[in-house]
Amino acid sequence: MNQVIKLTLQKNWKVISLIALAVLLRVFTIHQRGIWYDDAFSILLAKQPIMQILTGTAADTMPPLYYILLHYWMKISTQIAWIRMLNLLIFMAMLGYVYYWVKQLSSGTAGLLAVFFCSISPFLVYHSQEIRMYVMLAFFQVAYLYYFTRWSSSNVKKFTWLEMVICGAGALYSHNLAIFGLVIPGVVLLIQRNYSVLWRWLKIFIASLILFLPWLVFVPGQIQKIQTAFWTPRPGVLEVVQSIYSLFSFLPQPFPWVMITGVLCFQLLGLVGWEFNKQRQQIAQRALIGLGMVFIPLVLFILSYFMRPVYVARGFILSGIVLYCLAGILSARCWPTVFGKIIIGLMILISSISLPFYYSFSSFPRSPFAQACADVNEQVGEQSEGIAVLHDNKLSSFPCVVYEPGLPQMFLGDETGSHNDTLALASQQAMQLFPEVSIQEALKNKSQVYFFVFTRALDEYAELHTDVYPSLAYLDANFQEIDVTYFNDLAVYQYAK
Question: pLDDT, tens digit, for every residue of 338-396?
């Protein structure tokens, strides 16, 4: 047994070293980096019993698999660092599939470079620490492409079709946009007019859908929820440019650095596209790689003109990974030339510039909630009678509930029917977190108030109105302002009677 382990380590030490690099980049600040509303939503819902998770998720826009896994993962610990380790483990497993898929398509060197690019990608570092389902979606989709490539080759293993079915169903239970990644092999086979293999693939695809049937009944309602829950604008040139930038770098950054990294990103994309076009005849499964990069963004772009826009970079995380894989293949093939070294150099340079901004980012919507809550908790102490910790909206409330569940916290509801009104009643019931009807009802019989509000909300209101922000106007009229403390762009007002 020891000899087997030794041989395995000797054979795969390069892959293991790159995965170790990926881990180091993701455990850095894994505890200190703050959570935001989406993270907190996942944590608060996953804490509930399984039936409440299912009902709460059915009313939302996502399938339940990630929340269920997170539910059992948090039985060990609810520390933020531990919670994030789930996504880190999923990402490490995904890197293994990236390596073997690219190795199958090209070479072991190409596989190593693809793993390296995925490891240092700010986009994937972000999603590896995000307490959301996007890394799990990517894991199942990459594994699906790997098994499809193996299944469609001459060396078909007996149960590869079953592995495709399981990965397809896993992706569908991870995210409702997963289906667009799963149909890519079918589109490739259709373009190639390989009808015999297409028919066999279609049966595998239908088998995945059959496994998804128990949840499929909820999907129409979730699609309807998207019509109000998504706030993204209809995509144009700016949104396309931002999405390409996001796949390589991290936003926001100071303007000069945005310009520098933006130029580097599009140079890199242009070089990869140019070389891919030159070498397309020599690259195995070139149609699969090409469609893997452009199909999902293109479909989401088109759909966004027929429904509430769903064009967001995280939705086509698979496209970014396939792009890194192509960069790895081309770098390996062109390594003796300057071109291969330029691709590697640009990837390293973009990541080196972007990651420090990523690690240090602590503004809206990821303001320093932990620090603000700890400060208020210290002031409140054991005397919570007559004290209210009131949040202007759910975006600050949910993270603060995670950090300081013992505080007497409340939040004001979103305007009914607005694009911000995204928290479904069933989700509220599942988490037992309900918005207040009004600030008047929330502060009835309260003698002291800590009011959390984002400064950007105050600034946006001031741009359109001449009067005082409504909630602050009510507080000024009924309480006396004692103090206001700023935690970056999060303001905490203290009032008392």
Answer: 888 999 999 999 999 999 999 999 999 999 999 999 999 999 887 778 899 999 999 99
Is residue 53 a part of any domain in this protein? Answer: no
Q: Which residues does 129 contact at the CB level (< 8 Å), separation at least 6?
A: 26, 30, 33, 84, 87, 88
300 and 382 belong to one structural domain: no
Whether the Cβ atoms of residue 122 and residue 131 lie closer than 8 Å to each other: no
One-letter amino acid for residue 196 of the chain: S
Pairing of strands 409-411, 387-391: parallel
Burial class (CB in 10 A: 0-12, 13-18, 19+), 466: exposed
Q: What range defines the domain where residue 154 resides?
A: 2-30+61-359
Angle at 358 between CA 352 and CA 363, to 5 degrees: 150
> 45: number of CA atoms within 13 Å, CB side?
30
Pairing label, strands 409-411, 448-454: unpaired
Burial class (CB in 10 A: 0-12, 13-18, 19+), 472: buried
Phi-psi region of 29 (alpha: psi -120 to 50; beta: other; left: phi over 0): left
Distance between alpha carbon 8 and the CA centroid of its chain, in Å? 33
Residues 136 and 216 in one domain: yes
Instruction: Look at residue 490 and give its three-state secondary structure.
Output: strand
CB atoms within 10 A of CB 385: 9
Q: Whole-model pTM?
A: 0.94
List residues bridging with 198 in a β-sheet: none
